[in-house]
## 1
Amino acid sequence: MPRRNNILANIDWLTVGLYVLMIFLGWFNIYAALYSDEHQSIFDISQQYGKQLMWIGAAAVLALTIMLLEVNFYVFFSYIIYGVLMLFLLLVPFVGKEINGARSWFQIGPVLFQPSEFTKFATALALARYMSTHGFKLQTTKSLLTIAAIIFGPVVLILLQNDTGSALVYFSFVLVLYREGLSGVVLFFGTLIAILFVLALVLTNLTLALVMVGVALLMFLVFNPKLKQFFTVSIIYALSIGFFILLNYVVNTSYELSHFILAGAVVGSLIVLYHSVRNKFSNYTKIAIVFIGSILFTISVDYGFENFLEPHHRVRINELLGIESNPQGAGYHVNQSKIAIGSGGMWGKGYLNGTQTKFDFVPEQSTDFIFCTVGEEWGFAGTLTIILLFMLLFMRLIFLAERQRSTFSRIYGYSVAVILFFHFMVNIGMTIGMMPVIGIPLPFFSYGGSSLWSFTILLFIFIRLDASRLEKLSD
Amino acid sequence: MNNLSKRSYIVAAVFAVVALIYVIDLFRLQVLDSDYKQYATNNVLREVVQYPARGLIYDRDGELMVYNKTAYDLMITPREVGEFDTLLLCNLLDITVEDLEAGIQKAKKYSRYKPSVLIKQISPENFALLQEKLYKFKGFHSQTRTLREYTHPVAAHVLGYVGEVSANDIKRDVYYKSGDYIGQSGIERTYEEQLRGVKGVKKYMVDVHNRIQGSYLNGREDQPAEIGKNLVSTVDIDLQVYAEELFQNKKGAVVAIEPKTGEILAMLSAPTYDPGLLVGRVRGKNFSHLQNDSLMPLFDRSLQARYPPGSTFKPFNILIGLQEGAINTSTRVVCNGRSSQPIRCTHNHITPTSVVDAVRESCNPFLWNTFRNSINQFPTTAEGFAAWSEYVRRFGIGDKVSEEFYNENPGLRPTVDYYNRKFNGSWWRALTVRSLAIGQGEMGTTPLQMANCAAILANKGYYYPPHIIKEIENDTIRSSVSVKHETGIEAEHFEPVYEGMRQVTIARLNRFVPGISYCGKTGTIQNNQGIDHGAYIAFAPEDDPKIAICVYVEHSKWGASYAAPMASLLIEKYLNDTIATNRLIYEKQMMGAVLTDPNNPDLID
């Protein structure tokens, strides 16, 4: 049976269709974002929209090539591709071209390309290959360390190039690992850390201390609803915290009241821990440990925030959390972006009629802030449509991933979904002020050859894998 | 489906939750919250004021007097300024590098993004040079303003000048914004509201760099500027020019009025200045120059100088006497010349003196008699003096006689209360205040008021308030100018006064106007600081007066020596259009005289 026909018949045209639709919606919006009276033709290749059409053409060639290649190619060469791109990443700080303060671009003739864009699919391939090896078990230390090495290899190298946004993308692999059996506890702690981080920066120390003690007591009650034991625990905390508050009045130190409360909570937790371990109250043990960990983490956040983050990151996070706001300064991007989107209303101002867009009030409008153009010119109807299109794609990808017979294809499929999702979440979130301003593109929409091609490769390798899902892959 | 594949739902749920949060937030941002629409409008909207051209001013015959010329303000938008040739710009603008730096600093302080004025009012000639090179100076652009231009360099005080609004103007009237122009004096000030027009506004959309990108809402909300209304002045430009020629190198004032209407034909305060000096960039420098001039050219003598009327007031005292019955045409008074009591007479003339003689000869004893009788025929001095003072009030003395001039001096009219205060009681008598009989003492009139008095004589007993504007385009002039003011002197009493005044005009050749029978009265105003001032009032022709005039020439010794000849020349010019050949010698004499020195050795006895 001729294999070509087989592939053509098995291509998931819905995904391809969504891809094509989004690419062209993106192109139209790039045109709108940069529209000026002097350059009216959308095909003007001196302008970004003209160039984007060229990148789209190149992407089509890329997609076709990917579809034509033997499916086992991706399995066989996954490590090699990963290795080569890691080599590029390693070299780029030395021979790369510096743009906007980040030395993360290679220049080959007139074409600039950013290796960190391409390591995404390479990492996905390598991860899929490693995790689909025969007899692979996630829970072993060796597996976890290897996975960590595969994922954090590019992260470290990208961070060295000062490209925090691209580096953060790799954290999205945690969802893939979760699907493949990583304990939910990891997700739980991940979420807990994120919440504590935000609370530590937003709330005053005293409020935070009281909230934490309150939540901890609630946990004790929820996970072991026996009133007698709950009272015992409460009394232990009350006594130890009371002791420290009393101490605060007796000794005159420079520490705040909140520190004494937290110290009391730690001592109380240790007492509870001691008793629960002796009496085998496993729930209490866990809660007490989490509580102690949370307290220590919270205290370290403030310290770490002030001492480890770079000033411009600090400002952005402050801006995001509303701790400090300066609409003329660091908050300018987000403020103008929100004005653009917010002024769009229900139906938008009409194509090419966005004033925020046309008159350059939103910076990086064709790249990172392309969503503003959609919001301003197409209104809520437009933004809702884009979000629904992305959700449709993501759901389809999960569905496709789940129907794969080969573990390699499934893991790769999930990787595609979570990488795209992470970009979607951070990019749109930053345009509406719910995420810090991290320069990462909106897949298929943002201007740029590197990102378009990298997303095309990422997606089409999976479409290629899916087209051959009935074949036995050489895992 | 194994256990782990159920986790696909968790992953899908995570995706869905994030998407849902975003959709909800976008709905809030885009649909529920309307603030952002306003912010977006504020971002792009720039209102650019459209300055209307000021109304033009014509003379009474429709000849243009004041019009507008274009001037250019050089604007700077500090943010857009790049590297440029400082020296070249300074040369083009004719300023020093320090001035330029200071200007740029000031603009930066105001705003880096918004344009502000760097150099004001560059003339079209200078701007033409600059404009050719303007492309070399990024961040600089021009703004067009209009400046006043004058067809004749005359009537500076009447027309007034235009200057930038003060903080008070802005506080008083919300129409004005900093940097706007406003009429500061004269017609420009009185008719500011008509002349200024209405500023318009053009709404533009600008980009993030404040560059204009097009009109806002296709100009639907634009308001075009309304050009100021044109004015027709009552001034006869030829007469005004002639008056100024006559008054070169002299101090004093001329006011000429058309008696039938109260229209001011000419009004001059000498020394005067070219009104063009107070226009444009040179205004500040010239203004302080004029301000420091010891001859006080900025002081408007025609409206603000309060002289005692002197002998020019004598016809009016006689009219009061005639009206009150204190004297009549058969009254004769013996004049003892220099030995007359209580006021001596310096004029040699026939005696006993009749009304006609008294007017012609300016006889002091006759005037004293008239004044005393006018007052003493009442039971008390207070009543008599009050009656006299009321006539003076009706002559337009002691109150502003016109509503046209913000700076008009009301003059001084003595009242009973005034003298009661001055003399600490009511013991004073006509004798005490006898100076008033001959127009001296506690009485002051401006040239405008004396010209108006001349008009009262011409009209035989009434006047219309003097005014300077005849017509306003698409508008009406103030109604008060057509209110007839009666003085209460009956027309018949003017006959002998006219006769006396007519005889005055034929007394000497240098004040005789060929072909015109007219009436005049000289006056000499005693001056403690140098030579006396000469004054002359007149109206012409006698049978159908078309012009009433008052001339003051400071330090000219006698009214007869300069004021009367000059007035006659003005009358001749106005009524005959040309000066008769045999009188050109007087014209030359008058124009050539230099009388600015209060202690002119040629005139000191």
## 2
Amino acid sequence: MTLAIDVHELTRRFGNFTAVDSITFHVEEGEVFGFLGANGAGKTTAIKMLIGLLAPTSGRASVAGYDVLTQAEEVRRHIGYMSQRFSLYDDLTVRENITLYGGIYGLTDTQIRERGDALIRDLRLGKTADERVSALPLGWKQKLAFSVAILHQPAVVFLDEPTGGVDPITRRQFWEMIYAAAARGTTVFVTTHYLDEAEYCDRVSIMVDGRIAAMGTPEELKREHRVATLDELFVRLARPDATAGTAADHSSASGYE
Amino acid sequence: MTHRSPALTAFMTKEVRHILRDRQTLTILLLLPLAMVVLFGFALRNDVNDIRIVFVDPAPDYATTALRDRFLGNGRFEWVATAPAAADVEQFFRRGNADVAVVFEQGFAGRLAAGTPARILVVSDASDPNTGSRMQAYAIAVIASYQAELGAAGRGVRIVPETRMRFNPTLESVNLFVPGLIALVLTLVTALMTAISLSREKERGTLEILLVSPLRPWQIIVGKVLPYLLLAFANVITALLAAWIIFRVPFRGSITLLLLASMLYAMVGLALGVFIAARTSSQRAAMLGALTGTMLPSTLLSGMIFPIASLPGWLQPVTFAIPARWFIIIARGIMLKGVGLAYLWQPIVVLAVMLVFLMLLAIRSFKPRLA
Amino acid sequence: MNGGSPPLVVQGVSKRFEEVVALDDVSFEVARAELFGLVGPDGGGKTTLFRILATLLLPDSGSATVLGLDVVRDMWAIRSRVGYMPGRFSLYPDLGVEENLRFFASVFGTTLEEGYDLIAPIYRQIEPFRDRRAGALSGGMKQKLALSCALVHRPDILFLDEPTTGVDAVSRREFWDLLDSLRDSGLPILVSTPYMDEASRCDRVALMQQGRILAIDAPEALGARFPDRLFAVRGRDRYAMLQALRGYPHAVSTFPFGEELHYSDSRTDADAGATAREVLGFLRSKGFADAEVAPIEPGIEDTFMALMGAPEAAAA
């Protein structure tokens, strides 16, 4: 079985600054993998490399069986992507967004119609399907964005901070959609800064200063580091002396993002 | 398998939808070019009409009367007055009440009859060198056709027109542009920049904090606006120095008056900028509003580049509402004609009234609450 | 401070923007030296409420007094005594750290020196960067600077609208430590947050959802408002267990909660242990051999979800 994501000593430098420092990990098919780290830890750079938007300085990585450096276009065709900052076009209707993304990913008209209808049914949108996305509440936009991201049934879907600012029930409904997709064999690679959400994942990794500081199932990590929640582990790894009580800004000692 | 064309079609369809649904931008993109075509079409006309003419005819005779009738019958000229002496003509030019003056020498008809050269002096206001030369040409044409008439009747006549371009004898274009450029620079620094600065404060959220403080709205406005006034002042000085040193633009009037008038105009721009910022919700909208509401009308409708006289009749009253129009009258008057307060008090009063009106409007739009 | 009346009193405040109801009959009070939290997701009306209390908006109905002053009539008196930190940090990115502070101090007619001892515990953490442009700071430092700017004029009450949003977990903790010490010094603080776990750091909390208050209480006491019996369910196949439990006759709701599922049962009179064993039996019968069921105390998030009812519908 090919690994959905296979990363080996992946590195990215910007001049003198090493944003991603030789990280190695893999994700199996159908896993829900949580990719965690503080802002500036190198998370965003790593993801950009995995989705073929940024070339690595050294090391290699393959997504859905394709190499990110030499087969970037193939990678992009076999993955889905959703981010908090952008996903759907506000001034297009739900159906129009479905048609657009379906078309971009090369689905046939029949496929677009059938899958679009199924999506609208599953989300119980009804007539809202013909309204502009801007009219939807935030939680629905998120759920819709996820559904559209997997419309073309990609092998791997990347979710960049997908839930934010919604009520706890809607957030859990979103995660149930993730579970359902994983159960169907889609690999889900998600980043989030809600550390309680990290516990929904099968396995997580925590990046600090460009390196992976911890990786494993939530249960393993909590046991190993003797903490009750991943939040505590995160604090411990990101700012080692914060737990000692001093509030000096050390790990981001430069004060920069 | 890659399906290239459906992806492209899907993408283009999306773009079309975006364009059609952005009503604001769509209106601007469709209407603005139309407006510009119409405006430029009219403004770029080469002919000048309604040329205001003053005659000086100390000893009217059949020839001078006939010539005067020819001028008035021509259709391009509009009779303003007949002055007794050449010295009186200056007043009309300084006040801006006449465009062309035609001065007949005494004993005009007699000289014609005797076959000796009869002189006519044609003076044009060449502050705008383009119109100046054209008006000159029309006047000469009228005279030439009358001469041809007389010649055809068998008499050997010679009319010798002497031409003078008032205020701008060498027809320097830069003399035309500099007053307009000062107005443009002032509009840019004041209206555009204050609009952007204020709306940026709004967008950033810091305006909220400023409001929830002892600061009163007028203090916020003045604090924001005053630095731009100083900047505008510096810009005027630089522009004038450049014009004087590099381009040798004449400076016949009072510099103090020009600087004061510039400050007055700058304040009008600032008030306008504040008003625009108070009424718009984003920096982008503020910039768009400032450009279409101040820069564009100032460039097209103020007489800066295109003479107001060339604009269609229905558009000319509209120019009264453009502050730049009045400032350019003042600037040209001071720089090229060397006139002072006595002649320029009207446009100055107009600007002052505009300032008070816009300031009241701006202060009222800038509420101490968000809604 | 005014004699006996609490520093913040909100009574029946409602506000709507066209057809959208932003606030619906909101009432609560904040006492001296109290850290009061408004907890709930976006769109809950928290920002609108802050703006009304900061005298930036007028309520459609109801009344509110800040430090004994009416938000409608005594606008200017309130504005000089309130420390306000609206969302998104609201700093001047092209000014330096110290320049920002001095500016905000001067706006209130005071100086950085006069307010220094109050902001020292916070400011000391960013003082080494005092010449750096505020736009070049990390999220956590911007947050500390924004708090300093809100405090430098020694306000009598503090309004913080989502001060921890977009900030990393460590900085968030440090921020709440700072708020604790400010409250201990007597300052009443009203703070809003979408993070349920931060609710536990407040003295009292108002749960807000779509403009309405669901409950007001101390965080520990909120659990008592949970209407059903709550159980934690563990097992490897979470998703399948989730769907199975939803078919169970006594189920009120089942939600994923990290590594567990939280299952709420309608049989509130029965013994918790007995119910747990019944549910376990049901799961085992469905083939989940490694399932575990244990009764637990409801937390803030459980209570919030039970009280909020259904989430917002897709059609407005």
